[in-house]
Amino acid sequence: MTLATVGPRACAMPSISPAAFIARWQHADGSELANYQLFVTDLCQLLGVPAPDPAREDTRDNAYVFERRVTFHHGDGSTSTGRIDCYKRSAYVLEAKKIRLRATTRGFDDAMQRARGQAEGYARALPPDEGRPPFLLVIDVGRVIEIYADFTRSGATYTPFPDPRSHRIRLADLADAALRVRLKTLWSDPLALDPTRVSARVTREIAGHLAKIAKTLEGPGHHPELVAGFLTRCLFSMFAEDVGLLPQQDGKRAFTALLETLQKNPQQFVPLLTALWREMDSGGFSLVLRATLPRFNGKLFKQPEVIALDRDQIGLLIEAAYADWTGRTRHLRHPARTRPVDQRAARPRRPLHAARLRRTPRPAHRRRALA
C-alpha cells in the first residue's frame, strides 16, 4: 500500500495519557496564536478522536477545520469576514483565547464571556444550509474549557452545559474519565448529549427493569395496586437520594447502598425497607441509615407495604437505582431541611405502573420555561 492510497482518517492518532497531556500543557504560557491549534490537536489525541482536516479553498468543503471562514451580513447591507478558530459541522464552534488573568478573578470570567459572545456570533454567521451547531466551546488555552449548548440549533440561546456549576472544565479535570467521555461524545455524536434524548433513553431502560419486576410480582398473585404502590415508594426513594434528600454513606447513595446490602441478605429486605420507609414518614433519626432524615409528607410512606424480593429482583431495582433520577420528576422542590417533604408535589397523581414511566417529552418552549 502506498501513501497515496491512505485516506486522511485511515491512520489512528497515537494516544496520549491524561497525565502526560496535563503535564504538557500546565505551564504553556505562549500566545493563543502560537498554541491553540496544537492544544486542540493534542486534546483530540487525548480523547481518541480525529484531529481537524486540512482546509480547502472552497469554504463549503471545510466541515472540520481550523480557521473556518464565515461572512457576517450587517444591517446596512455591507459584509465582513471572520474566522472560526476551530469548527466541526453539526457539532461545535470553538473560540480560543489566552487570558493572562487568574482563573478565579472576575476579569477572567468577563473575558471568557466576551469569547462566548464571539463564538455565538460565528455560529449565527454560518450558512443557513449548514445550520447552527449544538455546542460552543470556549477555551483558555492550557487552562480551561467551557461548554455551552443549544439543542434547538436555532443559535438563539446557548446555555452552560450540562449546568452552570459544571460547564467549566479545568485542565486537571481532564484526568476524570467521565469528563473525557462527555467531550468525546461531543466530538463524535453531539446530539446524544441532548438531555431530552438521554431522559427518554434512561426512562425506557428504567421502565424495562421495573416492568420485569412488576411481571414477576403480579404473577405470584400480588394485587396490581399493591405492586404499583411498592414500586412507587422505591422510585421516590431513588429520586430522593439523587436530589440529596437522603444522605450518602461512605460516598455512596444511601438507598442504593442499602439495596446492595440487602441483595446479599434478601431475608432482611422486608423488615429493613419497612423500617426505613416508616422513618421517612415520621422524619428524625434513621436507625437503618444512621442519619437524620427530613419528614416525607403526603401519605406515600404512611402504610409502607413491602413485597419480599429475591436476589435477582433486588438486582433489577439496583440497576434502576443507578439511573439519574433528578430529571424524572420536575415537580419536586428541594425543601428546607426543617420542613416536611410533600410527596404529593413529587409523585405521580395515580399509582405508578412501570409502563407509565414512558413520558411524552415537553415541547421545546416549555422546556426553556422550566430551565
Beta-strand residue fraction:
15-25%
CA radius of gyration is 25 Å
* Integer average pLDDT: 82
- List the total number of helices: 10
**Secondary-structure class:** alpha+beta
Q: How would you describe what is shown here?
A:
The chain is an alpha+beta fold. It has 2 domains: 11-193, no CATH class; 196-370, no CATH class. Helices cover 38% and strands 15% of the residues. It has 10 helices and 13 strands. The strands form 4 sheets. Strands 1, 2, 3, 4, 5, 6 and 7 form a 7-stranded mixed sheet that branches. β8 (248-249) and β9 (252-253) form a beta hairpin. The longest helix is centred in the middle third of the chain and has 24 residues, at 195-218. It is elongated and about 75 Å long. 29% of the residues are buried. Residues 1-12 and 329-371 have low confidence and may be disordered. Residues 333-371 are annotated as: Disordered. Residues 346-371 have a biased composition (Basic residues).
Write the layout of secondary structure elements.
Layout: H1 18-25, H2 32-47, E1 64-73, E2 79-88, E3 92-97, H3 106-125, E4 135-140, E5 144-149, E6 159-160, E7 168-170, H4 177-188, H5 195-218, H6 224-242, E8 248-249, E9 252-253, H7 254-264, H8 269-282, E10 284-286, E11 291-293, E12 296-297, H9 311-321, E13 341-342, H10 364-370
Parallel strand pairs: 3-4, 12-13
Antiparallel strand pairs: 1-2, 2-3, 4-5, 5-6, 5-7, 8-9, 10-11
Helix pairs in contact: 5-6, 5-9, 7-9
